[in-house]
Automatic annotation (TrEMBL):
It comes from the Eukaryota. This is DDE Tnp4 domain-containing protein. The keyword Cell membrane does not apply. Keywords: Metal-binding. Residues 4-57 form the DDE Tnp4 domain. InterPro entries: HARBI1_dom. Signal peptide: none annotated. Its cofactor is a divalent metal cation. The keyword Secreted does not apply. GO terms for molecular function: metal ion binding.
Length: 139
C-alpha cells in the first residue's frame, strides 16, 4: 500500500504505462509501420502513431469485415492536416528538445497530480472506515 503521494503516483503511473504498452502491442500487430522506423521527417513520424490508433479504433467501432465501404474516394482529404478552420495542432513532439522551463512545468504538474491523487486516496480510505495517521493508512 502506498504511503506517500509519490508512491501512489508511481504505482498508478506504472499501471497506466502497462495499459499503454498493451495497446501499442495490439496496434503494432495491425500496423507494421510501427515496428520499424519510417523513412520520413520526424514531424511526420510523430503523427503516425495517433493516426493509426484513431484508425484502429474506427475499425473496431465499425464492422472490420465491412471496411471497404468506408474507403471510397470521398474519404480522401483534398488538404491533409487541414480542417475547415485551419491547421491541426499535433503538439511539439517532433520539435526536438525540452527546455529547462518546460521540464520544470512538467515536474510541477506531476507533483500537483500526485498531490490531488493522494488527497482523493485518503478520502477513499476514510470513507472505507480506515484510519489515516500522518499520511499513512492503518488497518
Amino acid at each position: 500500500r502506498p504511503t506517500t503521494p509519490q508512491e501512489l503516483y508511481n504505482l498508478r503511473h506504472a499501471s497506466a504505462r502497462n495499459v499503454v504498452e498493451r495497446v501499442f502491442g495490439v496496434v503494432k500487430k495491425r500496423w507494421a509501420i510501427l515496428t520499424r522506423p519510417p523513412q520520413c521527417p520526424m514531424d511526420i513520424q510523430a503523427c503516425i502513431p495517433p493516426a493509426l490508433v484513431a484508425l484502429h479504433n474506427f475499425i473496431l467501432k465499425k464492422d472490420e469485415n465491412d471496411l471497404e465501404k468506408y474507403l471510397g474516394d470521398d474519404c480522401y482529404d483534398e488538404q491533409p492536416g487541414v480542417r475547415g478552420s485551419g491547421e491541426i495542432n499535433f503538439g511539439s513532439l517532433a520539435d526536438g528538445y525540452t527546455t529547462r522551463t518546460e521540464k520544470q512545468q512538467a515536474e510541477n504538474r506531476r507533483d500537483e497530480i500526485a498531490q490531488a491523487m493522494w488527497e482523493d486516496y485518503l478520502l477513499v480510505l476514510a470513507e472505507q472506515g480506515e484510519q489515516v495517521d500522518s499520511g499513512i493508512a492503518v488497518d
